[in-house]
Write a structure and sequence with these properties.
The chain is mainly α and 67 residues long. It has one domain. Helix content is 70%, strand content 0%. The protein contains 3 helices and no strands. Helix 1 runs antiparallel to helix 2. The longest helix has 21 residues. The two termini are 16 Å apart.
Length: 67
């Protein structure tokens, strides 16, 4: 798959993803389902930010990559 996530979008995804993972880890035993969901969403955001590829963007025809 081609890259379709631009620099600013990648940085925002990594920052937001890190916040989600952190929140998920902090919530841990208090709300295990919400904690796992937040950590999962955060992990996907970090992965798409790190690789510059987003399958959802591809399906929607979105491309934020600066060319």
């Amino acid at each position: 798959m081609e890259r379709n996530v631009g620099r600013t979008d990648r940085r925002a995804r990594i920052a937001a993803g890190s916040a989600f993972v952190g929140a998920g880890l902090l919530a841990g035993p208090k709300a295990p389902a919400k904690s796992a969901a937040a950590a999962g969403v955060g992990s996907v955001m970090i992965a798409t930010g790190a690789t510059g590829r987003c399958p959802a963007y591809k399906l929607a025809g979105i491309d934020t990559l600066e060319r």
